[in-house]
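Quick question: who can interpret this fold?

. . .
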Amino acid sequence: ASHDLRQPVHALALFSRSLQRDLAGHPLQPVAGRVVQATDAVSRLLNAMLDISRIDAGAVQPQPSEVAVDQIFLRLAQMFEPRANEAGIELRFHTGPELVTTDTELVLRILSNFLDNAIKYSGRGRILVSARVRNDRVRLAVWDSGRGIAAEHLEHVFDEFYQVDNPQRDVSHGLGIGLAIVKRLARLLGGEVGVRSVTGRGSVFWLDLPRHAPAPLARATDGAATAELPPGAGTGRTPRVLLLDDEASVGEAIRLWLAPHCERIAITQSVAAARALVQASPEGFDAFIVDLRLADAQNGIEATAELRALAGRSVPTILVTGDTDPARVRAAYASGLTVMFKPVQPEALLQALHTLIGNAHGA
């Protein structure tokens, strides 16, 4: 998951999505769609590794608040009942009026992983999601009536890349890293995860949490989003964007993807060229997209500060990086810029640009 590997995958994701868009109605569009699917599979693997790096770097911090367990279960029901019904699975929730102080989104991510696996392996059986209080802790558990997990596999299910029933490593069956991420997230919450299983009868995965979490810490955001909206929405025109990335293929891929939504995209491969463009553009730029790691030992954080100083204002900036080194990840978040990690989902980049420009214009 190194920077050098992320660069071409980042460019490939953008090129393939642009190709799929531009081939709409063409006989080759299905082929482009297959390319997008394959690229997305590689991106998911790299992003899963990035999740682990972010957690290990301390870039993910819980934001605890008091929440009723039944509210967490309600959200899970809304997310998973349609899928369970389609699979012929009876999905039930059992809880009382318990209150916990925890990070709701991280808890949802953990339980969603458990539920996703339970639906995959339960056939047309039953799934129960339950909550039980023990002294100062609460156990949230997902029970299924699936085929179960053999005893020799149980101690490894939370290991990275360990998969019980996928010896061919078919990525359509998952990557074998979700439970490893879940284990790390549980530790962030001061909790722990576990599993019991009986072959032929089913399994139970649980999350044990303290009922009262430590005081909240600020959580960095990465600017990721999914909806595709024009970046200039709310500003009265399409935007002007300056892109600084020393990898020519990445710059061209971003330009090709964003071009239909922007008035101008200026591509530069050096800080000096970017400075010259800012100074020579009286109309200015609405946003910068800057790579963290640049040539000649320069970095995007310092470059952004220089460019903003030349522009005379705090131009909205997306800092894009392929680094997974914990120290660099911490530095990226500490910069206060919107951080996105390669390979960036094309729609997420478009939405992040829209959000930043809209916020800057009071939209």
Observations:
- The chain has eleven helices and twelve strands.
- The chain has two domains: 3-58+221-360, 65-210.
- Residues 65-210 form a domain with the Heat Shock Protein 90 fold (CATH 3.30.565.10).
- Residues 166-173, 214-236 have pLDDT under 50 and may be disordered.
